[in-house]
Each structure stands twice: as structure tokens, then as C-alpha cells.
Amino acid sequence: MKADAANLIVAVPRVTEAALLGAAALAGVGSEVFPDIPSSVDKMVHIEESLHPDPERHHEYTHYFSLYKRLYPDLRQAFHEMNALSLAVGP
Fold first, then answer.
1. Is the N or the C terminus of the chain less surrounded, counting Cβ atoms within 10 Å?
2. Helix/strand/coil for 13
3. If we measure between CA atoms, which residue out of 86, 7, 82 comes closest to residue 51?
């Protein structure tokens, strides 16, 4: 779905907890297990699969995105209010 909407190839990592993996990669550099961040990332990030966009689905998404861009200016404040409400209520 993301690949279709963005019309880009999406790389799906084996470990999907990006914050956790990023912290581990930085810890590896900080503890001198790896010499630098690129080396750490090269060793720790593994791509599980690549999702390729479907041109027909992308074409469909362009219509939705066009509508969204027209509606957003009028709904922007409402989106912020909804977010504030959801943060106040919690999970």
C-alpha cells in the first residue's frame, strides 16, 4: 500500500522497531564495537523484502491525494483538535 501510494519501492527491514535498532546501532558505535554509524547500520539493518508499486493502484491513489490536498486547508484545525483529544484520552 505505501509503495503504491508513493509510487516508490519500499524496503521492509527484518527488525521493524526502528527506534530500538537505531539505539542499538548507536550503542555499538559508542562501545567501539563498530568504528562508525554507517558500519554499524551495514551490519545491523537487514532488508526482509522490497515492495514494488502497482502502477494501477498508484493511479487510484493520485485521485485520493488530490482530494486530500484540496480538503486539508479546511480540515487542518480539526485534525489538530482530534489529535489533542486522542492524547488527552490516551490509549
1. C
2. strand
3. 7
